[in-house]
Write a structure and sequence with these properties.
five-stranded antiparallel sheet; mainly beta; 65 residues; single chain
Length: 65
């Protein structure tokens, strides 16, 4: 998605999130959730697709309903 907005993400059925990483806070959305890993698409990072363990769900805040 070229210019992701809150409205575009909601239309596609994706959940906009705020991820508090080890270095700073990132915004993006969850692409896929597996048994052990979650794949996040973060807007302000160089490798946009990031793999994090499911145990880090406590560092994710969902934005909007």
């Amino acid at each position: 998605m070229k210019n992701p907005t809150f409205r575009k993400l909601k239309r596609k059925g994706l959940a906009p999130i705020r991820y508090r990483g080890p270095d700073q806070v990132h915004h993006g959305w969850i692409e896929k959730t597996g048994r052990k890993w979650m794949y996040l698409r973060l807007i302000d990072r160089a490798p946009f697709r990031t793999r994090v363990p499911v145990a880090e769900i406590k560092y994710i805040a969902y934005l909007g309903g």
